[in-house]
Amino acid sequence: MANWTVMNLLLFALVAIPLCTKIACLEEALAKNFLLKLETEVRPVCHQRALSEWNFHTNLTDSNRKKSLESSIEYSKFWRRMWEEASHFDWRSFKDPDTRRQFSMMTTLGVAILPDDLLKRVGADHYNMLKQNMESEYGKATVCDFYNQSKCDLALEPDITEIFLTSRNPAELKFIWLQWRNVTGAAFKQNYTDFISLMQTVAQMNNFSSPTEYELRSYETEELTIRDFREQIDSLWSTLSPFYKELHAYVRFKLRNFYGDEVFQERNMWAETWESIEDIVLPFTNKQSFNITQRMQELKMTPIDMAKLGETFFVSLGLPKLNELFWKNSIFEKPPDSDLKMICHPSAWDLCDQQDFRDSCLDENYNLNRSFVFGKDGANPGFHEAIGDLIALSVQTMTHMESIGLIQHFEYDKETEINYLLRIALTKIAFLPYGYILDKWKWEVAYAKSPDMKKSLNCKWWELREEFQGVGKPHNINYGEEFLDPASKYHVISNVPYVRYFISMILQFQLHESLCKEAKNTKPLHLCDIYNSKRAGLKLKKLLSLGASKPWPVVLATVTDTQKLSSKSILKYFEPLYKWLKEENVRNNQTPGWRTTTTCNDRPLTKIKSSKGYFRAKITCPLDYIGSGVKFNLNLRSVIPYCPIEALPSTFVKEGC
């Protein structure tokens, strides 16, 4: 590999702009040629790394893991050399903002900046060693059958997922749920805490104040700081939280009617989506079901069939077909009756050579939407996820599903509309708090410098889940800090920042509304289908072609005419359902919201006085002492996360606290 210097590139620069004589102009021309050459040189190194990683993920052998680690080391070495060359340029003074942006991204070296004693520990890249150890064990993890506990070969896909979709036995669900946390999160705790320490080093050596800033660098622009971006995320959640609470109250009511007091809240392995309980919560059971999974089984459709339907949709917009390599190399589902150990997680792969793109372990939702989104990085990580999902918003409309045979002879009325929107909300709206808190836990707890936080990694996770998601730990389980429940999620141990999915949930509806306008749609937003709209396709193609070449707010504005993320479109899409939920909860005497009880003993007890004597509580809101009593400036909800209401003296509550 050539070791470029500024002088090596001088000839290229003089050819490119022979009339330029100023030093600054020459340096910027040198820099542009450096980037062009880099684009060519990086492809074979990137391809080899991606290919070895694919081989490891799809066949978890020691040999494949070793090859994957070796290719990761070579990839890190390559980028360290390029980083050293790029550091010679005074890129911050460049006039071209795109060139500045590319250098800004490249001069954050990432994990490759780690010193040799870490990169070569145990004969391999230490970062990837920790990561792949956890990924390998995750892919191989199995649990025991509830009804035959000597049978301990149930894998996450398809066995455990199927149990959570179909079982109505709370004892079985709790049994499987706890086992999974034993064989993943609890088993990974030491590796993951080592991984956190390593990320602290990576961030510091890349000149970031924390791993949080390092992980969010893709969202930062010259005009938008990381702090500004986090405030945007918090603001989005605050506008969507009331809708989620209405959905939560309605679902809680239906589950209690179905199960009684013995309700197991986790409706998939992480309770991030609730589609498995649609048969319990859909209000109008006399109306046609839109369960496409059942219909696919009736039609004996394979994942390949669904991927081809997705391709047909994109082609209708004027985009090209997928190439033969895609159909040849993709692994659409785990081979049945096979002992093959693989990480069967729905994913799309770009093998860096501009022609080899692959899919792995797809479900019906993934097949319908992401098979086509290849070839370029998104403007930020949320864009890649959002592009595919916005297409699914068209594909899943009732008229489109009828046109491709996935539903039959439906009659559209108000009740059908509510059933339809509620089904989608069980996936989209139910997901929002989980998508919001998973990285929030990392930023505020796992990456925190406070030793007290490190002692309460799991407890703080449950504080966040209760506060934002309204989901608590299962009852009657001895459950402490020996567990690490966030690490039972693949994205955590694989170090894939999860906030991208929260962002994509907002973006997909923003983009959907804009493309529907371009397609001259006159229907309500939830009925819009952009199939066959070349106008919408041109706008989408422009967004895809920009990739990460421009700051993400600029890319967003090319489609939406705004540079800000907004919750208006998602609220507009679900407006009929939101209104119905509020009315239904009033009719059923259901109050949105919940009481939280988890405390982590990391806040000092405040001594306060009531008519029953002194009382110690964990207080988060300001206190005003008036005489011998106590009055809170905020209402009781501010206290509840740290103090169960049962512990408060009755007169204390009556005084307005």
UniProtKB/TrEMBL annotation:
Belongs to the peptidase M2 family. CDD domains: M2_ACE (cd06461). Disulfide bonds join 144-152, 344-361, 516-528. Chloride binds at residues 219, 500. InterPro entries: Peptidase_M2. The keyword Transcription does not apply. Pfam families: Peptidase_M2 (PF01401). Its EC number is 3.4.-.-. This is Angiotensin-converting enzyme. GO terms for biological process: proteolysis. PANTHER family: ANGIOTENSIN-CONVERTING ENZYME (PTHR10514), ANGIOTENSIN-CONVERTING ENZYME-RELATED (PTHR10514:SF44). The lineage of its organism: Eukaryota, Metazoa, Ecdysozoa, Arthropoda, Hexapoda. Keywords: Carboxypeptidase, Disulfide bond, Glycoprotein, Hydrolase, Metal-binding, Metalloprotease, Protease, Signal, Zinc. Residues 1-31 form the signal peptide. It comes from the Eukaryota.
